[in-house]
Amino acid sequence: MLDNRQEFERAQRVLVGGVNSAVRAFRAVGGTPRFIARAEGAYMWDVENRRYIDYLGSWGPMIVGHSHPKVVAAVREAAGRGLSYGAPNVMESELAERLCALFPQVERVRFTSSGTEAAMSALRLARGFTGRTKILKFEGCYHGTADSLLVKAGSGALAFGTPSSAGVPEDLVRHTLVARFNDLASVEALFAAHPDGIACVIVEPIAGNMNLIRPEPGFHEGLRRLCTAHGALLIFDEVMTGFRVALGGAQQVLGVTPDLSVFGKVIGGGMPVGAIGGPAQIMEMMAPLGTVYQAGTLSGNPLAMAAGLATLALISEPGFFDAVSQRCARLVAGLNEAGRAAGVPFCAQSEGAMAGCYMLGRPPRSFEEVQAQDLERFRRFYHLMLDEGVYLPPSPVEAFFFSAAHGDADIDTTIEAARRSLAAVA
Ligand code: KE4
To answer: Which of 99, 115, 179, 402 has a CB 3.0–4.6 Å from the CB of 353, allowing a cystine?
Structure first.
């Protein structure tokens, strides 16, 4: 068996950067990515058989924990009936019915195989429905890798300092307008500059790809008002927040209803699923009923639907979100206490089972504030925690993810590891 370093050297000979998604390459924190051999509950084990308490959770999907017996059983059972049909199957309808029941303004759904595809298709739908060309996004928000959205994006694009990707034609991105999260005046100015020109505003309702940044009171109500007044569609990208901050996503927490919602991650339970949801009047602009084309070979894949259905059944159980939110809050309280004890500008916060920790004295409220972190101190902290067997997302601009599988002993172990690690970087 090769160790992590040897596996990484091997991977880099055949995979670009040794990875299949840029953020996995540890470029923001340095060092060698861990090659995971297996995962169960709150834990992952690497090829050196080192166990980690996992707060990556596959970047969000694993809210019930890894290899949950009911999810694995559902996938196994589906696999016995075929891996993919390329034709309708009833589980697609079942999962869509669950979505429509949870989100009142969602009357029609279209499944995809990733959040990127769902966000990209939602943009096309908004442009087709409104007949307009411009889209408005927010600096630091990330909506996957569709060309129009790789402009001042978050997540790995931000971490690597390439928020606006090479290879995206200038005459395309000129239709992408960028405002500042939590700055309604920057949105109003763009609407004033482009009257009747903006097809949609797409936003992470609670930002997670410039680390967790909460919306200021009134921000989303303002977006809702401006979009309605200007005939633009408001799109909530709930790929990360959906079924994570609450069963009804950020729109339930915020009490603001978008025109279209984009989902992913938890809705697939670890299998490839994205989704767009919205009123029939808008959604039915999409093929085969309308003229906005959209398709995907593995969209609605039976195994992915089975994993999503099993996961949604588990998180819909009474008390699930109260329990997971309370335990996540206990972890965050312990991390904040560890920062105070170490005398380090370090803090953490959470919303439901989504959390963020920062090398800052108080939670950031903007893209600029999150950028003010002491990156070298974060890197040292990150690796000290990894060496303690605590796996956080390998970036200072990513949220971290709690699960129902994280027990009190895991929380206590994590807090103690943070105390030692923060003391060491003080
Ligand atoms: P995917 O295409 O990676 O399934 O989804 C893209 C996406 C869209 N919208 C939001 C709000 C997202 O957070 C994401 C994906 N998030 C990143 C982590 N910040 C996925 C990790 C990765 O890129 O490997």
So the answer is: 402
Residue 147: partners with Cβ closer than 8 Å, 6 or more residues away: 165, 168, 169, 172, 173
Q: Is 112 in the pocket of ligand 1 (CB under 6 A)?
A: no
Q: Give the Å distance between the CA of 144 and the centre of ligand 1.
A: 5
The pLDDT of residue 161 is 66
* 278 token code pair: 């919205």
The residue whose CA is least distant from atom 8 of ligand 1 is 143
Distance CA 76, CA 131 (A): 44
Q: Which pLDDT belongs to residue 162?
A: 67
Contact in structure between 362 and 319 (CB atoms under 8 Å): no
244 CB less than 6 Å from ligand 1?
A: no
Instruction: Give the DSSP letter of residue 245.
Output: T
Q: Distance (Å, rounded) from C-alpha 356 to C-alpha 94?
A: 33
- The rounded Å distance from CA 344 to ligand 1 centre is 30
Superfamily of domain 4-67+318-424: Aspartate Aminotransferase, domain 1 (3.90.1150.10)
Helix (H) or strand (E) holding 335: helix 320-342
- For the chain, give every domain's residue range: 4-67+318-424, 69-315
Active site members: 142, 237, 265
Q: Which ranges of the chain have pLDDT less than 70?
A: 161-163
DSSP type of residue 269: B
CB-CB contact of 190 with 198 (8 Å): yes
Q: Which CATH class is domain 69-315?
A: alpha beta
Question: Phi/psi zone of residue 31: left (φ > 0), alpha (ψ -120 to 50 degrees), beta?
Answer: left
